[in-house]
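This part of the workshop introduces the protein records we will be handling. To make this concrete, we reproduce a full record directly below:
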Amino acid sequence: MEIILKLYEHYSREDGLEAWNKARPGFCEAESAAKACYLAKATGAKIGIVHVSSPETLDIIEYFRLKGLNVLAEACPQYLCLNHEDGRVFRPFTAKITPPVRSLKDNLSLWQGLGQGRFSIMGTDHCSNLLRRKLGSNIWETRPGFPGLETYLPILLSEGVNKDRISINQLVSLCCCGNARAFGLFPNKGVLCPGADADLVIVDLNMEKKVGNSNYQGFSDFSPYHGWNLKGWPVLTMVRGTVVMKNGEIIGRAGHAKYQAMKLKEV
């Protein structure tokens, strides 16, 4: 933290996503991950490193895995697809998040790690907010965080599966099986087999749509991917055998959701 505070002092004269990245560099994330993994190995604690944004952190995780530590690594779509060099980002300050989105080179390295099976689970770091509440006059006064649920699957299908960076089986392994196991919900969730909940997502890998207002189903009214043309969208969702979304419209009834208790033995 001392390094970050010193970097804040220095880079506060600059503005933009690159300055935010410079103030919270990847090596600080990797150093924190190394310390956490070391303590987990020394004490026998279970550990997961979430929101991995830098290849250095992934290397640290791999090092401790080779030492025998069972450590989960979580990827998020924004660290695979957003960077401070990309002119497609809708109003760049909307992409302010912690850890920061980094460089295109970092994106490509994390995609490579994903394809090699170095990640265990896929998250979103979803943060509901309104555009008027998020944006400040500069990057330092802008609030971190942005919504990620609505674009979670389309981004991974478009930028991952349809660009041959990962297979559809790898996506299912990360988003379904991996997450269900990590949260102690497997085999009721995360797999299609007799006795499991009939949770299904039907996707159209060839469907192309632009991210826009019609996609925002929750509290938030913006996305850093606004205006992006994505290929691959979910067209139907079932929860425990009941259709809750069809062709982009939420049709599930209130009260159908059910609390899912973690089974610690599966973690």
